[in-house]
Amino acid sequence: MAPRSSASTTKEKLIGGEDEVLQAIILADSFNKRFKPLTTRKPRCLLPICNAPLLEWTFESLALAGVKEIFVVCRSHSGQVKAAIAESKWSKPGSGIKITTILTAKETYSPGDAMRDVYTRGLVTSDFVLVAGDLVSNVRIDEVVRVHKERRKTNKDAIMTMVVKESGVNHRTRSKGDSAVFVLDAETSECLHYEPVDGHPKKSTVQIPREILAEHPELEIRNDLIDCCIDVCSAEVPSLFQDNFDYLDLRRDFVHGVLTSDLLMKNIHCYVLKEGYAARVKDTKSYDAISKDILSRWTFPLVPDDNHPSGHVYEHLRGNKYIAKGDTVTLSRTCKIGNNTLIGSSTQVYDNAIITGSVIGRHCVIGNGTVIRGSYVFDGTVIGPNCVIEQSIIGAGVSIKEKSTVMKGCLLGDGVMVGPGAKIEAFERLSVKPGMEVQMDVEEDSEDEDEDKGDDDSEEEVEEDGLTEDDTELDSDIEEVEKIQDTLKAKLVLGRDSNALVWPRGPILDDDEEDAEGPDNFTNQRLVRLADNCSDLADSDSDNDSDASTDSNSDSDEIPIEAGGASLLLSQPQTEFKREVKLSLDRAFEEGHSVDNAAVELKTLRMASNVPLVHVRTGVVAAIVDRIPIVEGNPGEQRQAIGKMIGRWGELINRIGGIDGVETVTVLQAQCASSKRVALFGPILVALYQQDIVDEDDIRGWHELPVSQGVGALLSEAEELKRCWTVGSRMIEQFDEQESSEEDDDEDSE
Amino acid sequence: MSAEPNPVLNLPAIEVLTSKLRRRQVVGSRPAALETLILLRQVVAKARFSNIEQLVEIIRTVGRRLVQAQPKEHSVGNTVRKVLHHIREEYNTATKGTSAAPSTTSFSISKFISQGQPKRQNTGSGPNHHPQAMMKATSTWVNHVPAPPQDGRRASVQINRKEDVQQEEEDDDDSTDGEGSSAGPSTTTGQDPDAFAKGLKPVLMEAIQDVLDELETVYDTVSKNAKDHVHSDEIILTLGMSRTVEAFLKAAAHHRNFTVIVAETGPSYSGHAMAASLSASSISTILVPDSSIYALMSRVNKVFLGAHAILANGGAFATTGTLLAATAARTHSTPVVICAGQFKLTPKWNLYHEYGGLDFGDPGDVLGFEEGLLTDGVDVVNPHYDYLAPELIDAFITNDGDHPPSSIYRLIKETYDDEDNDL
User: Fold this and answer.
1) Fewer CB within 10 Å of terminal CB in chain B, N or C?
2) Of A167, A168, A300, the CB nearest to B362
3) Where in the cell is it found (chain B) (predicted)?
4) What is the predicted pLDDT for the residue at A704?
5) Is A430 helix (H, G, I), strand (E, B) or coil?
6) How many Cα atoms occupy the beta-carbon half-sphere of A592 within 13 Å?
7) CATH homologous superfamily of domain A21-284?
8) For all residues of chain A together, what is the average pLDDT?
9) Which one of A148-162, A353-367, B104-118, B149-163 scores highest in mean pLDDT?
10) What is the pLDDT of residue B5?
11) Interface residue A356 vs chain B (CB under 8 A)
12) Contact at 8 Å (CB) between B317 and B358?
């Protein structure tokens, strides 16, 4: 960037001058299923918020920031995304923005995979803005980019700037399930440590590495920031993803990985927003919060009556009510429209209906005496007379017949029909039964042309490919759901002629999906689910604390699962690492790698997974021990086998990055004690001693440790440990004897 | 407009300005008016038209798009209206300038002001009324007539003009614009369709340049008579950061010694900048919190305010807090004077107190986003403007002289053409 002053930079950008084009990458896939079943037939970025698709809000946010070239990376429902972009005002010549859609493979399961794809395609050449396809923001990102570039001039290692917003701990827009603690240098606002905080189980402590405190005189440890997920990245960021193939999530893996890595030596900075608004629609709870923020104008000038991304025109009335302009809305004289409500064009509201704090789409019909509170009703939905709808999201083309009740936190997928007289419990999720869709499509065609056009217009092969694959994925989902329909339906009154399929609460379904998608995605899925449980509309409506008490029904079956999930989560990277070590060693053993090569491979693994050295040692020792064949009843041969094994591979134990004989012996003991090879402990130890992998002092050191005697171990293992310890004692006795005899020898010689 | 879409409407600059307006990247009456003018100049320069009606339609279409993009920035619409008015005026002068008596149909602002309702006067008023304005109008034309070397084109323009004149002689003057121009295309068909445009363009550019000049010098012209309004040792109250008021007070300070009390004007606190600027040019300035406006009002001799828009009923939109000051002034019978350029004259009413007209902004200025839970339970509003009813205002000082609220409607009628009130 040639121009020096910021003013001239921005000006030139606005004029569309010659200087470097600001690029942005939108990850238009959510890589999770928090919005199911609303997202079964539509990608999340096309869900409307305040009657405009999320993607449009994102485009507008980027346009506001002077971005000139946008790459939209999409995976599922890519045809729909493409069609939506083609239809929108952004693809018109005058928009000044070039939008390119990038289709990634179906195997892209995480933002990390998407970034690797970005790298392989070589999309970006300079600093770029990375956002998700569900961003709502009015931030001057160009200012952040300027700061980032300025910093890059002096410090080439500053690879990324994250935009965060001050909000206070308990802000509605700050997701409780999925927040983080940032440790920042007060002066340079460099991010020194990043620790994700899960809502469940509640995390009350954060561990900050001591070096950080030692190196920086002034620190800010902040738990009041909203992570806007706007990242200004240098061109090398995608390549980092490429190098570290295990980075999945942008924050938990990438940021955490870069900050903790002692190899990369890269810095990440934060930009704390003083003014401006930015947030991501990550889940149904933030959907609710951001809708409210838009309606109460926090996103100004991105508000319905001013700069509505879809170009609808609304009139702003007292109390933040927005009614579509142009006399298409029919409001009965006796209906009541409460504060913070938005009503789309051509919607009819009949007598005595009450709508407060809600968003009603276009072409909707609200019947006599119906009450809608805090809900989001998408386009073309018909709600019959005398219904009650509380804090729910109702999809497009839904039909709710008279006298139905939808309790809080429900998600009704597109085209669902319920009632009359249906009673839908809180937090229920409904979608259309596979067979009944046709009917719904017809209905939707007439009422919601825009959306359907998106589907119909898709002509390219790729799209069709994508759609069918989506369908198969969807079908498997639905099959799962259908299997358990009977039990689920028992609880609900759906009314006759309902075409609804009840989705299970809790994570039963997700478990199956995880298997289907492979273990690579395990962490991600679990995190998503955790967040989901906390941030399902359930929590958005009542506080987290009160939630547990008020909602015994849904919580009783969720809490234990969450707890289990958490413990798994903690141990998960470890087990995964063990597996990796084992695989790597298996390969080494089978293919006869040199010790050097094997050691290098293990080192890389350790760096990538960021585990302490002891785990590597455990892995190596375990692998070696497991490889030693047990020869029954022939101590000599057995010893020979051990000697051969240790002779070939024993050195590896000390080549993995540090020598600690005491630890080696401890690990060996634990390994032998927990397997059938207890008897081999002695011989192996001897062999190690003979190969100079452990020396006498190490054995003595180990011997003195209380743990070695089985103190604090489980009963079953204590015995085995004790046995090993006795073997050790015998060896030490031998050493003593040897020493005395040596002394004797010395004396003799003299 | 004719069926085929005019290529000039696809000008990228139009899209750029509409999105800038929509995104509030152009804020403030004067910057918006300036940008609009520059865009219109571009449009006129590039437009292809064969009669005045087409040109008017093009400008109206552009104007409509700009206004729809940001209905709350009134100066955009005003500028478009003014340009239209000037174009018609120049056209009329031009068409009549050579064949008929130049004075009969020339409409100049100064003449409207001196003579009132322009449309009613059919008979030729004396050329001695405003010789300067006449001179200008005719001279521009005279300059340009010999300019185009191609005789054919010039001839066609001449024909046009003659046609128009004949038409107008038959018709009432009221319908001049519509009828007169409709005759244009019939004569130009078969000839170079651009000839009309080529002949007229220099005049039109001149007209737009006049508006631009007026806009650029607006602060100076408003504060021309500042010393007549501010007397020595007066205490003057003002709110917010109005460039017009700033220039006005500074101009007055050349001749008089007076004290200015500036209210902080939350939540923008633009009063701080105002106070700093005034005291920098050695005016004795006092910065006070908004809450003490009422208490201080008894000592204040005059209240000078800036405006965002002046409405046809004599009311005005002005920075939040001005309603408070004006009401306090009313209680103490302190005169309230609004300083504003003419481009803020808006042919609109606010009889029903349109709520949205106040232009509500981000509540973050009033209650911080970091307040967390509080923002959930409280509805916070942050209007940019207050509506001042005409009863609260004593006088408007514009670059076109001083006016009471009751005569604003007339000023508006003279500045714009009635048919443009709805773009």
Assistant:
1) N
2) A300
3) Cytoplasm, Cytosol
4) 79
5) strand
6) 0
7) Spore Coat Polysaccharide Biosynthesis Protein SpsA; Chain A (3.90.550.10)
8) 75
9) A353-367
10) 61
11) no
12) yes
Q: Which residue of B has its CA nearest to A295?
A: B379
Could you give the domains of chain B? 7-216 (no CATH), 219-420 (3.40.50.10470)
Tokens matching residue B358: 């106040």
SS (H, E, C) A334-374: CCEECCCEEECCCCEECCCCEEECCEECCCCEECCCCEEEC
The encoded tokens of residue A517 equal: 């998608």
C-alpha distances out from residue B420 to A579, B38, B81, Å = 77, 20, 6
Q: Residue A218: what residue type? A: E
Residue of chain B whose alpha carbon sits nearest to that of A316: B356
Q: Is the CB of residue B355 less than 8 Å away from at least one CB of chain A?
A: yes
CB contact under 8 A, A64 and B23: yes
Whether the ω angle into residue A217 lies within 30 degrees of 0, i.e. cis, is no
Q: Are A390 and A407 in contact (CB under 8 A)?
A: yes
Residue of B nearest to A138 (CA): B23
Chain B contact present for A325, CB below 8 A: no
Radius of gyration (Cα) for chain A, nearest Å?
31
Mean pLDDT of B314-340: 94
Q: How far apart are CA A330 and CA A234, in angstroms?
A: 51
Overall average pLDDT of the B4-22 stretch: 81
Residue A179: closest CA among A228, A130, A110, A246: A228
Confidence band (pLDDT; 50, 70, 90) for B271?
very high
Residue B21 Cα to chain centre, angstroms:
17
Fold of A572-749: 1.25.40
From chain A, pick out residues whose CB is under 8 angstroms from the CB of B379: 296, 319-320, 339-340
Which residues, at least 6 apart from A382, have a Cβ–Cβ distance to it below 8 Å? Answer: A364, A365, A398, A399, A400
Mean pLDDT of chain B: 78
Task: Specify the pLDDT at position B91.
Answer: 85
What is the ipTM, given to two decimal places? 0.76
Q: Mind listing the pLDDT tens digit for each residue in A410-448?
A: 888 888 998 788 888 877 888 888 766 544 443 333 333
Identical fold for domains A21-284 and A327-451+471-505, yes or no, is no
What are phi and psi for residue A390, nearest 5 degrees?
-120, 125
Number of H helices, E strands in chain A: 26, 35
- Inspect the interface and report whether the beta carbons of B14 and A168 lie closer than 8 Å: no
Does CATH number 3.30.43.10 belong to domain A327-451+471-505? Answer: no
What per-residue confidence (pLDDT) applies to A565? 32
DSSP A384-427: -TT-EEES-EE-TT-EE-TT-EE-TT-EE-TT-EE-SS-EE-TT
Q: Does A91 touch chain B (CB under 8 A)?
A: no
Task: Compare CB distances from A301 to B15, B24, B382 and report the shortest one's residue.
Answer: B24
- Structure letter (DSSP) for residue B287: E
Domain ranges of chain A: 21-284, 327-451+471-505, 572-749
Contact B55, B49 (CB under 8 A): yes
Q: What residue type is B83 in one-letter code?
A: V
Chain A's closest residue to B68, CA to CA, is: A313
Per-residue pLDDT, A599: 79
> For the purposes of burial, counting CB atoms within 10 Å of the CB of A658, is it exposed (0-12), middle (13-18) or buried (19 or more)?
exposed
Taking 70 as the pLDDT cut, the residues of chain A under it are 1-19, 94, 176-177, 199-202, 435-491, 505-574, 657-658, 710-716, 741-750
Return the C-alpha torsion angle B279, B282, B283, B288, nearest 10: 20
pLDDT value at position A49? 92
Using the Cβ of A64 and the Cβ atoms of chain B, whether some distance falls under 8 Å is answered with: yes
pLDDT at residue A491 in the model: 64
Under a CB-based contact definition with an 8 Å cutoff, are residues A725 and A669 in contact?
Answer: yes
